[in-house]
Amino acid sequence: MSTLDEHVDKGVPTALQPVMSKFTLNTICETSMGVKLSTVAGADIYRAKLYEIGEALIHRLMRPWLLNDFLCLLTGYKAAFDKLLLPVHSFTTGIINKKREQFQSSTEQYSELTEENIYLNPKKRYAMLDTLLLAEQKQLIDEAGIREEVDTFAFEGHDTTAAALVFIFFTLAREQAVQDRIYHEIRQIFNNKPQSDRAFTPQDYTEMKFLDRALKECLRLWPPVAFISRNISEDIVLEDGNFIPAGCIANIHILDLHRDPEQFPDPDRFDADRFLPEEVDRRNPYAYVPFSAGPRNCIGQKYALMELKVVVVNALLKYRVHPVTRLEEINFVADLVLRSTNPIEVSYARRRLTVRWYHLMQIRKSSADFLAVLIQTLIAMHVLVIVGILLVFTLVLYEIHLRSLPSYRAAKYFPGYPVYPVIQNVFIALFKTQTGAFYQARGWARNFNHRTYRMLIQGVLFVQCIHHRDVEMLLSSSRLITKSPLYKLIVPFIGDGLLNSTGEKWHQRRKILTPTFHFNILQGFLQTFHEECRKLVTQIDKDSAQGITTKLQPLSTQVTLNTICETAMGIKLDTSESAELYKSNIREVGIIIERRAMNPLLFDDRIYEISGYKAKLDRILRPIHAFTNDIIRQRRSTFRATMQDVDSYPEENRYTNIKQRYAMLDSLLLAEANNQIDAEGIREEVDTFTFEGHDTTGSAFVFIFLLIAHDQVVQEQLFEEVVSMFNNQSNPTVQDYNDLKYMDRVIKESLRIYPPVPFISRSITEDVRYDGKFVPRGSIMNVELYDLHRNPEQFPDPERFDPDRFLPEQVQRRSPYAYVPFSAGPRNCIVNSLAILWDPWNRFQKDGT
Questions:
Q1: Which residues lie closer than 8 Å to 596 by C-beta, 6 or more apart?
Q2: H helix intervals, 222-300
Q3: Which residues contact 446 (CB under 8 A, 6 or more apart)?
Q4: Contact 285, 263 (CB under 8 A)
Q5: 780-784: strand order across its sheet
Q6: Phi/psi at 800 (nearest 5 deg)?
């Protein structure tokens, strides 16, 4: 329930599979194994590996040649499968070892019990694993046998029940009337229990007749194990005369058996009343077998049904379940249990229970004095009136204060939404999701006809610049270079480096780093670019050979991270677990920062810490900072040899003449040796460039590929230009790439439509007057690049992909500040030349799919 509470508090839907799987594994371990899961390592890996094992088994089943054990061994399939099993068996072995310790300390206790009372009267709760360990003492089973049974029950006891819970909650979310009826049945039993003890007993669950029918109907529609298979060991003649010889295999497709229209009319419709006693009597008992039937029926079916009831009752008592995933969105996959390849999600909302007035007043009728109650009520009303008056008076004073601020008077210079008393525009602009915030900003741009607009939030004027004249004023200024308070949210991530710093610190860092990206150095980076291109093409060749589409984001991120590490940091990344962890954690960092940015309450550091977001962010940042610290450590170890080369050349050409390729990190280490920067400052810059240098360029690649894939004419013209270059030059230089004029226009048009960084924010540190407008000190000016690049005055028909917008004669007609994908002015991107040069997609032609 605490997990569901977290999802409710965050307002996010719940992906049922991981939540239910974690719950059922905890439950089976504590009940059947007698071991608390928190005391055994490897639970998360166990759950993850189960899915891979299921895929591997189905993969083998669908390939008859792999059913031969020799071929399975020869192909390497067995070795790969055994590798999957190692952490699974390690987990169950850990459970056995933990329980064995407990069992040995309680041997005397168990030896005193007779077979008749061992399951009912032990001093401690008796678990299934105790039975196995007791049998081992009597030499009825060996250690391998115990592990076989623990493996069986740990898997079957949690994965099948988890699958059942997933589809039960999915079904109840769709069937609101059924959910309400179950809830009323639960409340009726709950309300009839004494207030001193309202815990449900097994008898209470037995009395929940409609719940029982509803769960059975869910198991009919979605049996957790949808398939049973048996060997036919003797000849069989069926009642209808059909003959099945020995050696055949008989499969029971439970999912289809439960949808037999002869037994269940309109079988896809949910109807709990199919399991009324009179309806059950009319059916064949073998028409419904979610737990199998006969001698080999599920030994734990009563346990599973009780667990299902307990979970559903406790969940529905506290929450109402709403649908998120639609039935048609579920993509079933052949597996050991019923499973979907995509997450099945529902949303939970807390129920509002009616609390009776006499519970609040706590007045017993036998002792109530009407006059005393009346007097107390009048006093309470007076107190409420006084508090109300004070609250209104405070709000009036606050509104007067807001209206006296320069920001309020300056708001008239820009169009915007109505400014409401006290709250101003806070609910219009904030408390949005990432997706909602993005599309809302696009809607604002359309509503204000691509004119710069404003918002007032807590007395601060926010100017959203989407017109080139406003952008020019802001970005061209040498004084308005201070980043807005929004950037403080990423200080824990990348520190106070070149991106966040201002004043003297920014000037010094810029001076240190600028020579590192001199145009002459780019020639030395070409070899790395070409190597990463070859890796990229190799991966795409594999995808093409297998007939699968290429997922651009992970592929482009891998290439750009490798490249920035080798060129800017001087470290060859290759494959690294820490690098993979770095990439996966970057997205989580972005989610937390965005949530804080959209919630003004979380701007307060104390509230932010209390909310738990700070602790979560710190936990995610640890492997990120460990990754960049490792980069610095590796380069520092080779710096002394590099420094000898550096010192042998004058400063003006030291970056281009040294024998070993010079990296940005060398500039920082050299500055450290000259006492211009400390170790913390180096890490800030490495964090900044590692993140910005790979994530933004990776994003640009994704959308460049997307656009040229959908425009075959542009792609063909690009291809011809590239082929022409390679026909004339097998080892192209920087100048050769600069001569690819059409490619340059394609890249620029791609960056216009999809700028990798769609948003820039600055603090206004002095009063600014321009074009008859006034922006007071303390305001925030944001440049919405995504909308700026879509201004129809500068780019007619802005959604159309047209590289010829960047022909020289077209560029001259526009304001230079109408297109700023790398920002502009003093704080423009220090590595824009590097980013433009790095375009691996000139190496091949991509199908437009």
A1: 489, 602, 603, 608, 613
A2: 254-257, 277-282
A3: none
A4: no
A5: 453-457, 460-465, 780-784, 759-763
A6: -80, 135
Residue 460: its H or E element: strand 460-465
Q: What is the pLDDT of residue 266?
A: 94
Dump pLDDT digits (tens) for 76-129: 878 888 888 887 788 778 777 777 777 776 655 555 555 555 554 544 556 677
What percentage of the chain reaches a pLDDT higher than 70?
A: 84
The pLDDT tens digits for 417-472 are 999 999 888 877 666 777 888 888 899 999 999 999 999 988 999 999 999 999 99
Query: Which pair of tokens denotes residue 747?
Result: 């890249």
Spatial neighbors of 344 by CB under 8 A, at least 6 apart, are 15, 16, 17, 166, 167, 170, 325, 330
Q: Which conformational region is residue 656 in: left (phi greater than 0), alpha (psi within -120 to 50 degrees), or beta?
A: alpha
Q: b/e string for 212-246 if b means 16 or more Cβ within 10 A? A: bbbbbbbbbbbbbbbbbeeeeeeeeeeeeeeeeee
- In this structure, the chain runs to a length of 849
Q: How confident is the model at residue 169 (pLDDT cuts 50, 70, 90)?
A: very high
Q: Which long-range contacts (CB under 8 A, 24 or more apart) does 42-49 make?
A: 42/87, 42/90, 42/91, 42/94, 43/91, 45/87, 45/91, 46/87, 46/88, 46/91, 46/154, 47/18, 47/21, 47/22, 49/84, 49/85, 49/87, 49/88
**Cα–Cα distance for residue pair 90/404, rounded to 1 Å:** 68
Structure tokens at 157: 């006891």
* d(C-alpha 475, C-alpha 788), whole Å: 13
| Two structure tokens written together for 788 | 């700026």
pLDDT digits (tens, 9 = 90+) for 532-550: 778 888 888 888 888 888 8
Is residue 34 a contact partner of residue 44, using CB atoms and an 8 Å limit? no
Distance in angstroms (rounded) separating the CA atoms of residues 166 and 218:
10
Q: By percentage, how much of the chain surpasses pLDDT 90?
A: 31
Query: What is the enclosing helix (H) or strand (E) of 345?
Result: strand 345-350
Query: Residue 229 is inside which H or E element, if any?
Result: strand 227-231
Alpha-carbon distance 19 to 659, whole Å? 56
Per the rule left: phi > 0, alpha: psi between -120 and 50, beta: everything else, 345 is: beta
| Distance (Å, whole) CA 468 – CA 568 | 33
Q: How far apart are CA 633 and CA 620, in angstroms?
A: 21
- The Cα–Cα gap between 26 and 46 comes to 12
C-alpha span between 339 and 343 (Å, rounded) = 9
d(CA 142, CA 442): 68
User: CB-side exposure of 471: number of CA atoms within 13 Å?
Assistant: 27
Quick one: which H or E segment has residue 608? helix 605-610
Mean pLDDT of 50-60: 72
8 A C-beta contact, residue 454 and residue 461: yes
CA distance 168 to 290: 14
Distance CA 47, CA 602 (A): 34
- The pLDDT value recorded for residue 847 is 39
Q: What are the structure tokens assigned to 594, written together?
A: 């965005």
The phi, psi pair for 262, rounded to 5°, reads -70, -35
Residue where the block lists tokens 């007045």? 363
The Cα 336–Cα 160 span in angstroms is: 9
Distance separating alpha carbons of residues 318 and 504, to the nearest angstrom: 57
Distance CA 737, CA 746 (A): 13
602's CB contacts (< 8 A; 6+ apart) are: 595, 596, 608, 611, 613
